[in-house]
Amino acid sequence: MFRTALIATALFVTSSVLAEAQPAGNRVKVNGMQIYYEVSGDGDPLVVLHGAYMNIPSMGTIIPKLAKTHKVYALELQGHGRTTDIDRPITYPNLADDVAAFMDAVGLKKADIFGYSMGAAAGLQVAIRHPEKVNKLIAASVAYDAEGWQPEFTAFIPQMTVEMFVGMPFAKDYRKLAANPDGFPTLVKKLIALEHEPMAWEADVKAVKTPVLIITGDADVATLEHSVAMFRLLGGGTMGDMGKPLPASRLAVMPATSHTAVINQPELLHAFIEPFLRGETPKGMFE
């Protein structure tokens, strides 16, 4: 998921509801780390990026759903799940460069990317820093500027402490998969520091040519106004039915949905993602 604090309470529950067996895992050396990843399904390649404190299982059943029509490369980011950590901060540019290097390492010249929360921001940075590698981007629960966070979350960031997170139930779950079972406090420090990293990407987003599907909950960590502003930066928000093609990018709002509830609605996510990747649009009266 994404913003470090909100992920704390609801994420690892999804790992217990997976109905299908996980595919065999693989590891590849990338930027000094051993990145763990799983490949499933057939079709056009789709890279899946999880949120902070998460791993592949905690992304839930959206991965096997996507694997029915795509070749899914799900990976675990720096210090998460079975991927090793290195002596380096976790930043969105760093994560994006890791994803690009991962694609090179496994022979992926170009792919679609689906990211949730922290993974969505990393995916957005891939589209900014390595646009030649991205066909389409699905960014769920994302922001492009720190000013876009809900005021409650912005006020909470200075209160975050390592102790606050190490006492949470999912801290025990971390040990079950982690390459370093004692590495959780270090991961928390890095993810708290990530919340303090500057984030002001408006000019970069406006220059993005990659089609982007923005998915947000109506009670997400980013404000609805921020999601709409991002959609407009990408060329969206114009009127249809006027004889002009619809914008390449899209915006989807999930009703009655908090940040941590976004990833727990795989059917709705899938209903948004598949038509976008296929380039399908609803037909209007004048078509």
Automatic annotation (TrEMBL):
Residues 1-19 form the signal peptide. It comes from the Bacteria. Pfam families: Abhydrolase_1. The keyword Transferase does not apply. Residues 45-142 form the AB hydrolase-1 domain. The keyword Signal applies. Keywords: Signal. This is Pimeloyl-ACP methyl ester carboxylesterase.
